[in-house]
Amino acid sequence: MKGECDKLIENIQSSGWEASIVATGGGSGAVHALLSHPGASRFVLETQIPYSAEALSAYLGYAPAQGCSKETGRLMASRALERAHQLQVPDSKFKGMGIACTAALQTNRQRKGADRAFIYIKSTDREASQVLELARGTRAEQEEALSEALLKFIAEFVVEVEP
Protein backbone atom coordinates (compact mmCIF):
# COMPACT_ATOMS: atom_id res chain seq x y z
CA MET A 1 0.00 0.00 0.00
CA LYS A 2 2.97 2.34 0.52
CA GLY A 3 3.34 3.23 -3.18
CA GLU A 4 -0.42 3.58 -3.65
CA CYS A 5 -0.62 5.68 -0.48
CA ASP A 6 2.15 7.99 -1.71
CA LYS A 7 0.33 8.48 -5.02
CA LEU A 8 -2.95 9.25 -3.22
CA ILE A 9 -1.23 11.81 -1.02
CA GLU A 10 0.51 13.44 -4.00
CA ASN A 11 -2.88 13.76 -5.74
CA ILE A 12 -4.41 15.23 -2.59
CA GLN A 13 -1.58 17.70 -2.05
CA SER A 14 -1.53 18.90 -5.66
CA SER A 15 -5.32 19.34 -5.84
CA GLY A 16 -5.36 22.99 -4.77
CA TRP A 17 -7.58 22.17 -1.80
CA GLU A 18 -6.69 23.01 1.81
CA ALA A 19 -8.16 21.23 4.80
CA SER A 20 -8.76 21.34 8.48
CA ILE A 21 -8.89 17.74 9.67
CA VAL A 22 -10.45 16.37 12.85
CA ALA A 23 -10.43 12.73 13.97
CA THR A 24 -11.65 10.96 17.07
CA GLY A 25 -11.51 7.28 17.90
CA GLY A 26 -9.54 6.43 14.76
CA GLY A 27 -8.12 7.83 11.55
CA SER A 28 -4.91 9.18 13.06
CA GLY A 29 -2.90 6.99 10.70
CA ALA A 30 -4.20 9.01 7.74
CA VAL A 31 -3.32 12.25 9.54
CA HIS A 32 0.18 10.90 10.18
CA ALA A 33 0.54 9.84 6.52
CA LEU A 34 -0.52 13.28 5.29
CA LEU A 35 1.79 15.11 7.69
CA SER A 36 4.82 12.89 7.14
CA HIS A 37 4.69 13.22 3.34
CA PRO A 38 6.80 16.06 1.89
CA GLY A 39 4.65 19.06 0.98
CA ALA A 40 2.01 18.51 3.66
CA SER A 41 1.46 22.24 4.09
CA ARG A 42 0.06 22.44 0.54
CA PHE A 43 -3.04 20.65 1.84
CA VAL A 44 -3.14 20.52 5.65
CA LEU A 45 -4.09 23.73 7.46
CA GLU A 46 -4.46 22.03 10.83
CA THR A 47 -5.32 18.74 12.47
CA GLN A 48 -7.15 18.15 15.71
CA ILE A 49 -7.69 14.92 17.60
CA PRO A 50 -10.24 15.53 20.38
CA TYR A 51 -10.05 11.97 21.69
CA SER A 52 -11.97 12.04 24.97
CA ALA A 53 -15.70 12.79 25.21
CA GLU A 54 -14.82 16.04 27.01
CA ALA A 55 -12.38 17.09 24.29
CA LEU A 56 -14.93 16.34 21.55
CA SER A 57 -17.56 18.36 23.43
CA ALA A 58 -15.13 21.27 23.71
CA TYR A 59 -14.32 21.05 19.98
CA LEU A 60 -18.00 21.07 18.97
CA GLY A 61 -19.18 23.47 21.67
CA TYR A 62 -21.55 20.92 23.20
CA ALA A 63 -21.79 17.20 23.92
CA PRO A 64 -23.10 15.18 20.96
CA ALA A 65 -25.69 12.49 21.63
CA GLN A 66 -23.21 9.85 20.42
CA GLY A 67 -19.50 10.21 19.77
CA CYS A 68 -19.39 7.82 16.82
CA SER A 69 -22.26 8.56 14.45
CA LYS A 70 -22.90 10.01 11.02
CA GLU A 71 -24.46 13.10 12.64
CA THR A 72 -21.41 13.67 14.84
CA GLY A 73 -19.18 13.27 11.78
CA ARG A 74 -21.26 15.89 9.95
CA LEU A 75 -21.03 18.29 12.89
CA MET A 76 -17.27 17.74 13.19
CA ALA A 77 -16.79 18.40 9.45
CA SER A 78 -18.86 21.59 9.66
CA ARG A 79 -16.72 22.82 12.56
CA ALA A 80 -13.54 21.85 10.69
CA LEU A 81 -14.73 23.81 7.62
CA GLU A 82 -15.29 26.86 9.86
CA ARG A 83 -11.72 26.46 11.11
CA ALA A 84 -10.41 26.14 7.54
CA HIS A 85 -12.08 29.42 6.62
CA GLN A 86 -10.56 31.10 9.69
CA LEU A 87 -7.09 29.85 8.71
CA GLN A 88 -7.19 30.63 5.00
CA VAL A 89 -4.64 32.98 3.51
CA PRO A 90 -6.28 36.38 2.86
CA ASP A 91 -6.92 37.15 -0.83
CA SER A 92 -6.20 33.57 -1.87
CA LYS A 93 -8.27 31.51 -4.27
CA PHE A 94 -9.26 29.37 -1.32
CA LYS A 95 -10.70 25.93 -1.89
CA GLY A 96 -11.14 24.77 1.67
CA MET A 97 -12.71 21.75 3.29
CA GLY A 98 -13.42 20.25 6.66
CA ILE A 99 -12.62 16.56 7.02
CA ALA A 100 -13.95 14.52 9.92
CA CYS A 101 -13.51 10.94 11.00
CA THR A 102 -15.21 9.48 14.03
CA ALA A 103 -14.62 5.82 14.80
CA ALA A 104 -15.26 3.03 17.26
CA LEU A 105 -12.39 0.57 16.91
CA GLN A 106 -11.44 -2.51 18.92
CA THR A 107 -11.31 -1.77 22.61
CA ASN A 108 -10.65 -3.57 25.87
CA ARG A 109 -13.93 -2.46 27.43
CA GLN A 110 -17.56 -3.38 26.84
CA ARG A 111 -19.12 -1.39 24.01
CA LYS A 112 -22.45 -1.57 22.26
CA GLY A 113 -22.46 -1.78 18.49
CA ALA A 114 -20.12 -2.88 15.76
CA ASP A 115 -16.63 -1.63 15.09
CA ARG A 116 -17.33 1.21 12.68
CA ALA A 117 -16.33 4.60 11.37
CA PHE A 118 -18.03 7.62 9.83
CA ILE A 119 -16.11 9.88 7.48
CA TYR A 120 -17.53 13.22 6.46
CA ILE A 121 -16.04 15.85 4.14
CA LYS A 122 -17.59 19.27 3.71
CA SER A 123 -16.69 22.20 1.48
CA THR A 124 -18.63 25.38 0.85
CA ASP A 125 -20.64 23.80 -1.96
CA ARG A 126 -20.17 20.06 -1.59
CA GLU A 127 -20.32 17.34 1.02
CA ALA A 128 -19.84 13.61 1.09
CA SER A 129 -19.97 10.90 3.71
CA GLN A 130 -18.93 7.30 4.04
CA VAL A 131 -19.89 4.69 6.60
CA LEU A 132 -17.46 1.85 7.26
CA GLU A 133 -18.16 -1.39 9.07
CA LEU A 134 -14.72 -2.58 10.17
CA ALA A 135 -13.76 -6.24 10.07
CA ARG A 136 -12.81 -7.87 13.33
CA GLY A 137 -9.10 -7.77 13.95
CA THR A 138 -6.60 -5.95 16.07
CA ARG A 139 -6.98 -2.27 16.71
CA ALA A 140 -3.82 -1.65 14.65
CA GLU A 141 -5.29 -3.56 11.70
CA GLN A 142 -8.53 -1.61 11.92
CA GLU A 143 -6.64 1.70 12.17
CA GLU A 144 -4.64 0.83 9.07
CA ALA A 145 -7.76 -0.14 7.09
CA LEU A 146 -9.60 3.01 8.24
CA SER A 147 -6.66 5.27 7.42
CA GLU A 148 -6.36 3.81 3.91
CA ALA A 149 -10.11 4.26 3.36
CA LEU A 150 -9.93 7.85 4.64
CA LEU A 151 -7.07 8.75 2.29
CA LYS A 152 -8.92 7.18 -0.66
CA PHE A 153 -12.10 9.06 0.23
CA ILE A 154 -10.24 12.39 0.45
CA ALA A 155 -8.54 11.71 -2.90
CA GLU A 156 -11.92 10.98 -4.52
CA PHE A 157 -13.38 14.18 -3.10
CA VAL A 158 -10.63 16.47 -4.36
CA VAL A 159 -10.53 15.07 -7.89
CA GLU A 160 -12.85 16.88 -10.23
CA VAL A 161 -14.49 14.25 -12.39
CA GLU A 162 -14.84 15.20 -16.05
CA PRO A 163 -18.23 14.53 -17.68
From TrEMBL:
One GO cellular component term noted in the UniProt record for this chain: cytoplasm
Instruction: Give the top-rank taxon of the lineage listed in the UniProt record for this protein.
Output: Bacteria
Range of residues in the leader sequence: none
Provide any one GO MF term from the record: nicotinamide-nucleotide adenylyltransferase activity
Q: Which PANTHER family does this entry report, sorted A to Z? A: NICOTINAMIDE MONONUCLEOTIDE ADENYLYLTRANSFERASE
Q: What is this protein called?
A: CinA C-terminal domain-containing protein
